[in-house]
Design goal:
Blueprint lengths: L6 H26 L3 H7 L2 H21 L4
Helix pairs in contact: 1-2, 1-3
């Protein structure tokens, strides 16, 4: 059986990943007051993923510290 994807299937996968990176760039850009296009044009994917994880964890920690049990 042929396991290669069609062009349509491959483009769907590409745009799904691209949308994820764009969303991450918008979040990081808003946090750092940087244009998302600057992030997408100059940063590598690992830098974007690490920055996104770091700032998302900071916000989560802040929100959890507001909860009084």
């Amino acid at each position: 059986m042929n396991s290669q994807k069609t062009v349509e299937e491959a483009s769907d996968d590409y745009f799904e990943k691209f949308d994820l990176y764009v969303s991450m760039a918008h979040f990081v850009g808003k946090t750092l007051h940087i244009r998302p296009n600057d992030i997408l044009d100059t940063w590598g994917v690992p830098e974007l993923v690490v920055a996104y994880g770091h700032y998302a964890n900071e916000i989560t920690s802040q929100n959890l510290s507001l909860i009084h049990i």
